[in-house]
Amino acid sequence: MSKSDTFQAEPAQILLVEDNPGDVRLTREAFKQGRIENDLHVVSDGFEALSFLAQEDEYADVPRPDLILLDLNLPRKDGEDVLKELKDDPALRSIPVIVLTSSSAEEDIARSYELHANAYLTKPVDPDEFIETVRAFEKFWFSVVRLPPEADI
After folding, report:
1. What Å distances lie between residue 133 and 8, 11, 58, CA to CA?
2. Residues 63-78 pLDDT 10s
3. What is the C-alpha to C-alpha distance for residues 18 and 98, in angstroms, rounded to an integer?
4. Quick one: which H or E segment has residue 84?
């Protein structure tokens, strides 16, 4: 058997930036029920998110995410600031960022796209709808969309 016969796709590396433990649990549940093999990494504030992406300190050995799910309402450093810093960094800007937040305010939506978010999803209040929303974008982003290769910077 050749090496290519045993090749298995690497799990998708997903970074969830979310401070609400209930939403973290629902997101984990949705990905567990999904068909895409993934490693879900969770950080709970903007500073942790940027440390994870820079692979600093306790995050020195973490993988580069294939996709980032970003809440806007975060402690210490909000999601908007994280999005701006991420998209300003040439080494990180190609990572797709999906804003997943409870805000449906037009100005939050417009601002997120101005800061180059790849998508904006409003979290449904109903837990079953929340899980369905996560599963739908998981299928879209990992079955339909071609993600960029890791930048050699």
Report:
1. 27, 20, 31
2. 999 999 999 999 999 9
3. 12
4. helix 79-88
